[in-house]
Amino acid sequence: MNFNQFKSIYPSAFLTDDTKNDPNYLTFPYDNQWIHFDKKQLTSSEIKLLYLVFNKTVSNENTGNPQSKWSDFLLDDQLHLPVETGVYRIIQFDINKKDTRFDKKLWLSSFKSFFKDVQEAFFINDHYGLLIHRYSDYSITQDETIGILQTLDDDFSTKTSGYIGQHWPISIDFKRFFKEEQAIFFNQLKGNKQIFSLPDVALSYYASDALSKSSIIQHLKKDLISHPETKELITAIWLNQGNISLAAKYLFIHRNTLQYRLDRFYEESGFSLKNRNDLLLCYLLTI
């Protein structure tokens, strides 16, 4: 069902880019956003039906374990912890390019095989899912996780976006942290990085709301976005931490060409992307 169909049945339903975390609403991931239903306007049967509609893939694809304590805890209103102790990390994945021959079970099995201490891995819908694993001295690093997803993309002819969560000790707060990480992932899916973690996107995610309220920032941003190649230039310098040679490789241009563009940008804007403060401000203008 599309949103308009839900809206025709539940007029108070609405979409947001974040989870809202309001106990008065029933909330589900929906098309890279969140859909919310007022619990006061739902019968117990309707609540059960909505859970079935939005979480049916979990029960069907949950690696042979439909009574999953992890999925109940993370996706439903269950408050019981899935385990008693330990530190865990959730890796979110979104496969946004696949052909009709794509085998979800084989992909998931392959993905799990790279990790030790996997607690659970499952698809929530036909393209989005989670892998939960326990922290140990042998836990895979972020760079290794990026390499794994890139390898799977090559093997399965897919294009996967991923969010590598932080390690959190299991507690009632774990679910709240996951909901925020989920909101970050959905918000940043169309950003510059295909696979990322909190340090990669924290600045753009948490600063975007404040920046949108600044008349100064909006005025500067209006001038900047009128030249699309300028955003590409700033992004390249930012992602490569001000290293001109690496930024030139990122843009597939000669170092001297990039240097010329930097000089021209300085002449036109008064901002030097070689200066860390200027670069930070200009990057914020691209968010």
Automatic annotation (TrEMBL):
<dbReference type="InterPro" id="IPR025736">
    <property type="entry name" value="PucR_C-HTH_dom"/>
</dbReference>
<feature type="domain" description="PucR C-terminal helix-turn-helix">
    <location>
        <begin position="239"/>
        <end position="284"/>
    </location>
</feature>
<protein>
    <submittedName>
        <fullName>PucR C-terminal helix-turn-helix domain-containing protein</fullName>
    </submittedName>
</protein>
<dbReference type="InterPro" id="IPR042070">
    <property type="entry name" value="PucR_C-HTH_sf"/>
</dbReference>
<dbReference type="Pfam" id="PF13556">
    <property type="entry name" value="HTH_30"/>
</dbReference>
<dbReference type="InterPro" id="IPR051448">
    <property type="entry name" value="CdaR-like_regulators"/>
</dbReference>
<dbReference type="InterPro" id="IPR009057">
    <property type="entry name" value="Homeodomain-like_sf"/>
</dbReference>
